[in-house]
Design a protein that fits this description.
10-stranded mixed beta sheet; alpha+beta; about 25% strand; 2 domains; 11 helices; single chain; 16 strands; 6-stranded mixed beta sheet; L-amino peptidase D-ALA esterase/amidase; about 400 residues
């Protein structure tokens, strides 16, 4: 599959970039016996960058990872699922540091070369006997094989129904450079970075400040543009690591191939973001909302997020109801400049509103279209040049069922 400057690597994973290995296992945090502890390891100190949840209540692992990333490098990241280690006080913080120190000891690394991430139930202390026992077994699982990457991706899932991973190759200085990502996310997803756990690896040689800048820019147009339920988690983070093994001249915005690399990097982020939105808890379809003609890109983003986050719009998508009134109502309450007389709305290619006036359309065709597993909504404001796209899912009975019994 080609797309201008990069190639999608079918079957690629987080260990496809040179210099990385991974592994995962079941240590006992999850009652169902599924993997709940995973690790990514780089052979050398990797240039590293991260973004974190904007929730003011933040889990203990975020503080530990921020500390480890203070020098802009990492060798490994250890992740557990089944327990968020959030709102667990001083004990939770000590436990996050113990996870970091235990993995560092097992791999022969300095503690500040290790990042820590957790996901799962909030407010319960980690079973550290299980976690530390699992960490002792992790090094034997760490390999540069697709099966090991699979064990890692399974270890980070909670209510997810499917794993999320994507990998691309792009030429830099005539050399193939690989970019890969893996993510988890299904509920407690809202566009305030990070809205999930995600991990990216690349064998590019890149300046750390440039990597951090690119990560933030990519996040703004991808992960920050998805929503499932309007809730931003306490644990979310996105970590990117670059081994430099590809052997290219160091990348930064002044490099002639910077734009090509950035395009591939953003593609990976977008693919993971869309996969999270599609796998929203109880969801039956991916919903994509594009807003054109806003006064600015920032305004378009705000409007697109409001539409995709509307419970009424999401319910209409579930019911395959072409209720465009819910869409224009969400546009109008987004708090952004809108000319109330110039709004067009399309569902796929079906025009339902033009110049803010109803258009006769075939209800049966609209019903059939909205029954599909991917629905696109396009809003043209004719008020400026700003455009943005957001992704989400429908709101179903199963979303309530899943979250009503999350702890039980």
């Amino acid at each position: 599959m080609e797309n201008h400057t990069f190639t999608v690597i079918e079957g690629g994973s987080i260990v496809t970039p040179q210099g990385f290995s991974a592994g995962g296992l079941h240590c006992g945090l999850k009652k169902n016996g599924r993997n709940d502890l995973g690790v990514i390891v780089c052979e050398v100190p990797a240039a590293a960058a991260a973004v974190y949840t904007t929730n003011l209540i933040q889990a203990a692992p975020l503080a530990v990872t921020r500390e480890s990333l203070a020098n802009g490098q990492l060798r490994a990241v250890v992740v557990n699922s089944g327990n968020a280690n959030a709102c667990t006080g001083e004990q939770g913080e000590r436990d996050a540091y113990r996870m970091r120190e235990a993995l560092a000891q097992e791999l022969g690394l300095a503690p500040d070369e290790v990042a820590v991430a957790s996901t799962g139930v909030i407010g319960e202390l980690l079973n550290m006997e299980a976690v530390l026992g699992g960490i002792k077994l992790l090094p034997a699982q760490v390999q540069r094989e697709a099966g090991s990457a699979e064990q890692f991706t399974q270890a980070i899932l909670t209510t997810d129904l499917v794993k999320k991973e994507i990998c691309v190759s792009v030429e830099v200085d005539g050399i193939p450079v690989t970019i890969a990502g893996a993510a988890k996310g299904s509920g407690m997803i809202h566009p305030n970075m990070a809205t999930m756990l995600a991990f990216m690896t690349t064998d590019a040689d890149i300046d750390q400040p440039a990597l951090q800048q690119l990560l933030r820019q990519a996040t703004d147009t991808t992960f920050n543009m998805i929503t499932v339920d309007g809730d931003t988690s306490t644990n979310d983070m996105l970590v990117a690591m670059a081994s430099g093994f590809a052997g290219n001249r160091k990348l930064n915005p002044g490099h002639p191939d910077w734009n090509a690399f950035a395009e591939g990097f953003i593609y990976v982020c977008r693919g993971l973001a869309q996969a999270i939105a599609r796998d929203g808890e109880g969801a039956t379809k991916l919903v994509e909302v594009t807003v054109n003609g806003a006064v600015s890109e920032q305004s378009a983003r705000a409007i697109a997020k409001t539409v995709i986050g509307s419970s009424l719009v999401k319910s209409a998508m579930f019911g395959a109801d072409a209720n465009w009134g819910r869409i224009i109502a969400a546009v109008g309450r987004a708090g952004e400049p809108v000319n109330p007389n110039t709004v067009d709305i399309r569902l796929g290619e079906i025009v339902v509103l033009q110049g803010s006036r109803p258009v006769a359309f075939d209800e049966d065709n609209a019903l059939e279209y909205l029954k599909g597993d991917t629905v696109t909504v396009t809003v043209d404001l004719h008020h400026g040049k700003g455009s943005a796209t957001a992704w989400g899912c429908d709101l179903t009975y199963d979303y309530v069922r899943i979250n009503a019994a999350y702890r039980t």
